[in-house]
Description:
Layout: H1 4-7, H2 9-29, H3 47-57, H4 60-66, E1 68-71, H5 79-82, E2 87-90, H6 100-115, E3 124-127, H7 145-151, H8 154-169, E4 175-176, H9 200-205, H10 208-214, E5 227-231, E6 253-255, H11 258-274, E7 279-282, E8 286-288, E9 294-295, H12 300-310, E10 316-318, H13 331-341, E11 346-347, H14 352-364, H15 370-386, H16 406-418, E12 421-425, E13 437-441, H17 448-452, H18 472-479, E14 484-487, E15 500-506, H19 528-540, E16 542-548, H20 557-562, E17 565-568, H21 577-583
Parallel strand pairs: 1-2, 1-11, 2-3, 3-4, 5-7, 6-8, 7-10, 13-14, 13-15, 15-16, 16-17
Antiparallel strand pairs: 8-9, 12-17
One beta-D-glucopyranose binds near residues 91, 92, 93, 321 and 459.
Amino acid sequence: MASPLRRHAKLWIPLAFIAAAAVAVWFVAVPAESDGDPDYRDPTLPVAERVADLLDRMTIEEKAGQMTQVAVDAVQGDAVAERGIGSLLNGGSDALHDTPEDWAAMIDGRQEQALDTRLGIPLIYGLDAVHGNASLPGATIFPHNIGLGAAGDPDLTERAAQITAAETRVAGVHWTFSPCLCVVRDSRWGRTYESFGEDPELVSQMATAVTGYQGEDLSADTSVLATAKHYVGDGGTAYGTSETEDYLLDQGVAELSEAELRRLHLAPFEAAVDAGVGSVMVSYSSNDLGDGPIKAHADSYLITDVLKGELGFDGIVLSDWQGVDQISLDYAESVRTAINAGIDMVMVPFEYERFIDTLLDEVEAGHIGTDRIDDAVDRILTKKFELGLFEDPYADTGNADLVGSPEHRAVAREAAAASQVLLQNDGDLLPLTGEESLYIAGSGADALGRQLGGWSGAWQGTVEGVGEGTTVLEGIQEAAPGADVEFSEDASAPVVDRDVGIVVVAEDPYAEGVGDAGAGDHDMRLSGVDAAAVDTVCGAMDCAVIVLSGRPIEIGADRLDAIDALVAAWLPGSEGTGVADPLFGVTPYTGTLPVTWPARVSDEPVNVGDPDYDPLFAYGSGIQT
Ligand code: BGC
Ligand code: BGC
């Protein structure tokens, strides 16, 4: 029997002619310059048209590459070009660089590889500039969000974000994974300081950070793409429900009704979408709305129906770092579930070959629809066009000297001062005149790193700190040059002949689950050294205690009686001068508590509006001077 091929051989000859003719007609019909000068390269066309044109030209491999975000130091050889990787990030474990020019050169080198591909689609580069571009030595570092929540000034939050954006883009970075619009409901959470506060209304007001980062025009050399994170419910997890033993709240499970999830945790994302936020990062945590926990990374209802559908979010949904891997032990199932849930780009961040190959297999097998892929890539390309990356793919370091400039530091100082919350002021001890003789002690008095906290030069931060800034001690010396200052960190110097003591107590830096109270070294109590310093100093003279911390800490009732003035200073950033300003009346105390301050750690969770609410210092407390 003749093979089907042979049987149709006669038909093939005319078919080949028709095909050849069709190709010829196509070449004549399509304007000659279209290939050398495709529509997607034409900046005069609307972004949507450019995206559609580019999408049409892309292979499925190129699309899969765009959906891939890799930690920069994990990239092997020419992988950016070979696999068409769409995005790189600096994770806390990737190398840092000393100057804006060094950063830009590193990123430009990767960009060159991206442009050296068939379609030349530029890379988008991201990192966590969450309170300033703290990966860049010399950058201006603002108070962490908890302090900005205490300041309660949406305009100030916006200005801080603007400065961060400028100091980030000038180093060649296009995208910040900030703001955290998490609503912290239990301060034992190690990420409490990344939250603007416990009240969704306050957190929603701070969505001005989005407009600060993104500016009027994303393509401006002072704008970066913002990320509202972590969607959704990250601050609402219940203590002790996490499957992993050492992470108590971080990455845990929020158990609440859908109505409560919406009221407490979704609301700020609505504000961010209204402000035009370009990306949303999914939370490691799970939500249990009554039918058992579902990982946010697997939740198509919350991502596709609610965020993209109901809220109308049209930007990029980004996974968290290895967040997709946590869905299932079966990697193909993880990838399929995450992409079908509506995640557009995956922060892989290491095994990108495995991710791309798995994604391609799942598409090939029909488990992920090509429409879903096109939707994801459409969203990613749209932001790349809006950022102007097709026109200006390389960094512009022309304004590098704005990094850490006096103008920028003045705003960080203003923000630090506005974030100070005066909780107790017996006998109106504060403000001081600046003419006193002062005894200064405490682990936070002269330690930049304890002012900066986590996400500062290193994922977990460091006690030594990074970059340039003034410590609280230096700030005091600057604000009160007439004061006679004796400094003894552990209060071992004799406490005689001094008018006033100032003890700056502090938490050591931490980030994420490491900071969960009970998970390790961090327990929300005064360290032994700081407690002893407070007891020594406050036992001998009038004293003010300044608390540098990411959250309320337990002070103890007796100790509180011995303290005259108590100030919550949060994690004020690089400008210790801002802590000193209200201390000496240069500015008034205006901050108010963005979270409830309980008497004991074991009183957590406690939030304004709870039945029988009777904490040590209520939400909104703050003596105004
Ligand atoms: C954090 C994110 C962060 C990402 C990249 C994750 O561990 O949860 O907030 O943006 O790492 O560093
Ligand atoms: C990375 C961080 C990341 C974290 C996630 C660290 O190794 O450096 O960027 O957020 O892991 O757990």
